[in-house]
């Protein structure tokens, strides 16, 4: 493999992984571990299997079609790509406001500045990446650097927490309880919405597609899930170590209290670094991927796509700084986000067997079957979440 290809594949993997590892990732992992204890290992295991099945299918089909997801969807059924793009952009914008908020919180922990000022500075940094001439390469390196930092610091906190590793391993394969909604939440948070397309679209932009690149693309897709899963496992064990000692987490900020209880004030500062790194890389990934879903619809959008990405970040930052995080919108869009994976994956599976889209490529039967099971399961559970999300909006 050429060094340039290796760099692109690694960058795509980390872009997807760091897009998944955001403020919500940290909070969900902490809360579910506190509730399910060692049995949360089983939830992580099942979600990893589903994540790999979904991502391998999507990345391979994008690579063989040599088109972005929305163009594939329009080829399957005219207009479907526009619908998918609307869902992705809505979800990406809403959650990016949360990512900006998380970046502001991270700098607040580190330097004591207000979350609003921290969000503003983080937004400016994210914009700066896309002002660089080699923006794609800069984005790749940024995601890799902060990804490694997050994992290394969380690993340190995990060791200081002294988790019961033996029990965690045992309960991963023989859980006391099985929480289906926790599995759905983790899958949605890892490969839901725009996230699974972040790396796939990055490979298209870098020109790494077609039959010759298929083995590399497949490995990169699995590697991306591996990076996100390693972070999830380390954080799970850190939380488990803290709660197993009988220590209570702060309900207002569960992940921060884990780091502080495990490693004192040093741990709290480490949390600031991890939170900021997780949030700002998610800001970059959400903006890049969301715009990648609309840039092919017009030559004007394609020409100015970099400025669209910058505008996306500016809007997210302004909304948070001026009115805060729109909780009600996040609830609704969160429910809609649960439907994006089954729609997108379903479309990809249909496209995989269309010669006018993928040429002579033959998609493995086992991958189609695996993908179909994921589509059906996530569609049912995503619809359930949506039906419960809308009434919640009106009750709140």
UniProtKB/TrEMBL annotation:
Bilayer-spanning residue ranges: 36-54, 75-97, 109-130, 142-160, 180-200, 221-248, 268-294, 306-323, 329-352, 364-387
Subcellular location, record wording: Membrane
Lineage, uppermost ranks: Bacteria, Bacillati, Bacillota, Bacilli, Bacillales
GO biological process, one term: iron ion transmembrane transport
Signal peptide (UniProt feature, chain positions): none
Organism expressing this protein natively: Planococcus lenghuensis
Membrane disposition: Multi-pass membrane protein
InterPro entries, sorted: NRAMP_fam (IPR001046)
The keyword Transferase is assigned to this record: no
GO cellular component term, pick one: plasma membrane
Protein name: Divalent metal cation transporter
Pfam families the UniProt entry points to: Nramp (PF01566)
Domain of life: Bacteria
The entry's keywords: Membrane, Transmembrane, Transmembrane helix
């Amino acid at each position: 493999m050429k060094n340039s290809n290796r760099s692109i594949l690694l960058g795509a993997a980390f872009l997807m992984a760091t897009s998944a590892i955001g403020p919500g990732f940290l909070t969900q992992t902490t809360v579910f571990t506190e509730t399910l204890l060692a049995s949360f290992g089983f939830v992580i295991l099942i979600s990893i299997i589903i994540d790999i099945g979904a991502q391998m299918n999507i990345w391979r089909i994008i690579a063989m079609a040599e088109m972005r997801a929305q163009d594939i969807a329009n080829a399957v059924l005219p207009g479907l790509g526009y619908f998918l793009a609307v869902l992705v952009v809505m979800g990406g914008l809403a959650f990016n406001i949360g990512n900006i908020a998380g970046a502001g919180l991270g700098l607040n922990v580190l330097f004591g500045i207000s979350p609003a000022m921290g969000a503003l500075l983080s937004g400016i940094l994210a914009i700066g990446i896309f002002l660089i001439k080699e923006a794609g390469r800069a984005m790749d390196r940024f995601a890799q650097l902060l990804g490694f930092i997050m994992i290394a610091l969380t690993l340190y906190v995990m060791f200081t927490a002294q988790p019961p590793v033996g029990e965690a391993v045992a309960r991963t394969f023989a859980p006391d309880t099985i929480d289906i909604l926790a599995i759905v939440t983790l899958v949605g948070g890892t490969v839901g919405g725009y996230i699974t397309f972040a790396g796939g679209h990055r490979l298209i932009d870098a020109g790494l597609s077609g039959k010759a690149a298929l083995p590399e693309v497949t490995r990169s897709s699995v590697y991306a899930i591996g990076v996100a899963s390693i972070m999830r496992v380390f954080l799970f064990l850190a939380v488990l170590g803290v709660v197993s000692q009988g220590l209570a987490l702060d309900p207002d900020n569960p992940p921060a209290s884990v780091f502080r209880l495990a490693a004192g004030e040093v741990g709290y500062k480490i949390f600031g670094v991890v939170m900021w790194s997780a949030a700002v890389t998610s800001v970059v990934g959400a903006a890049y991927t969301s715009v990648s879903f609309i840039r092919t619809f017009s030559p004007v959008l394609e020409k100015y796509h970099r400025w669209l990405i910058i505008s996306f970040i500016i809007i997210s930052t302004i909304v948070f700084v001026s009115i805060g995080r729109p909780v009600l919108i996040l609830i609704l869009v969160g429910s809609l986000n649960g439907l994006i994976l089954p729609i997108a994956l379903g479309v990809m599976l249909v496209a995989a067997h269309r010669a006018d889209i993928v040429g002579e490529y033959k998609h493995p039967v086992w991958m189609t079957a695996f993908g179909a099971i994921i589509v059906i399961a996530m569609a049912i559970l995503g619809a359930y979440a949506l039906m419960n999300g809308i009434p919640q909006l009106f009750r709140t």
